[in-house]
Write a structure and sequence with these properties.
Elements: H1 12-20, E1 47-53, E2 60-65, E3 70-75, H2 95-118
Antiparallel strand pairs: 1-2, 2-3
């Protein structure tokens, strides 16, 4: 789950920073040279909101700093950045297979329609 400080990998932001992008505590994520960083643009050193509220106070929520890998709690009235992340591993649907499947189904429907018209 969530935790205060650095090396917290139980949150989606912590997992992204430490496990997926090879971040290290105390260092800005853009300085580590991980090739997966090329997938992202405009990464800020300021804090990002987490989607998780803080159970200790309904006025607070978790945040994460990509400038140093620190996870902390911030007042919900603060203005922070946001980064959409998905829970768990998201698989990609291969487009060529999906297009082939759609195309073959469409050809089958056209064939059925022609057969009905010829009758």
């Amino acid at each position: 789950g969530e935790g205060l400080g650095v090396n917290c990998t139980g949150s989606e932001m912590g997992h992204l920073f430490y496990d997926e992008l090879s971040g290290t505590a105390g260092n800005f994520i853009l300085t580590n040279g991980d090739p997966d960083l090329a997938l992202f643009s405009n990464v800020q050193s300021a804090p990002y909101w987490s989607s998780t509220g803080y159970t200790g106070s309904s006025a607070n929520a978790w945040d994460f700093f990509f400038s140093n890998g620190n996870q902390s709690v911030n007042d919900k009235s603060s203005t922070l950045f946001a980064w959409a992340v998905a829970d768990g591993n998201v698989s990609v649907v291969p487009i060529p297979a999906a297009v082939w499947l759609f195309g073959s189904g469409l050809i089958g429907l056209v064939g059925i329609a022609r057969r009905k018209k010829a009758e």
